[in-house]
Structures are given as structure tokens and as C-alpha cells.
Amino acid sequence: MKNNQKYSLIKERVEIYRDFTINLTNYIFKYYIDKESLSVDEDIRNHYLWCYKKNCDDFLKENIDFTENKELINYFYDYYYSLFYTKDIPLTLGEYEIFWLNIFNIDKPNDKTFVKMFIELYNIYDLSINKTTNIFELVQ
Q1: Which residues pair with 137 in a beta bridge?
Q2: Distances (CA, A) of 123 to 36, 86, 136
């Protein structure tokens, strides 16, 4: 017999996580000078961390704290390092926004890859909300 798993999630968190992701993307684009100025890994990391901190500061005003979530920091650093900072022709801001909107679209999941990415990211974000367990739990 096939085991059907169901997941429970909190829709308001999905919206917060989506907004944080898109805002981070906007900061990365807004404060990106050019590839030549950010050609050294240390400069890339500093730019990214500055954008991440600026985004966190915005959310701290709403008492939402992502500042200490190392997994989240590293997740987005790895993502943008490989798909933005080091690409010869990266996607446009609009293309990234559409991508993230599709990932966080829980009303119409697109495909298995997007769903897997969403679950992984949701659980990483939840580490900020609940330090001991993931909120995204299996429902029996």
C-alpha cells in the first residue's frame, strides 16, 4: 500500500517567507554595482551579507528575526553565488521574482521540483521561528 503523506503549513508564514525572499533579491539587485567590482569571493560575500542584513533589519521592525539563521544565510548565499554573482548572463530581477513567486505559490504547485524546493526552504525558514523543531510536520 502506498503511504500518502500530508503536510501542514501556516499560510501566513509562507507569505512572510516569500516576502523576505523577494526583498532579499531586490536588495541584491539594487545594490549590485557590476561584475568587475565584485569579482573576488570576499567582496561577493560582503555584498550578499550586507543585503541580507539590510533585509533582516526591515523584518526586525515587525519583530520577525532571521538574523541568526545560519542555514538560511548560507542557502541564499549558495543560491545567488552560483546563479547570480558568478554567471556571465544572470537572470533579470523580474525573472527571479517570477521564479520565487512560483516556488511560494501553494495554491497551484507547479511541479515536484518546485514543491521539494519549497518544503526545504520552508523548513529552513522555520528554524528562525521555532529553534527546536520544524513546524512543517507530517500530519497523521
Answers
A1: 8
A2: 35, 27, 6
How much is the pTM? 0.84
User: pLDDT (tens digit, 9 = 90+) per residue, 15-42?
Assistant: 999 999 999 999 999 999 877 778 788 9
Question: Can you name the residues that pair with 43 across neighbouring β-strands?
Answer: none
Alpha-carbon distance of 65 to 62, in angstroms, equals 9
* 107: number of Cβ within 10 Å: 5
First CA to last CA across the chain, in angstroms? Answer: 16
- Among the residues of 1-140, which ranges form H helices? 11-30, 41-60, 70-80, 93-103, 112-129
Contact 114, 103 (CB under 8 A): yes
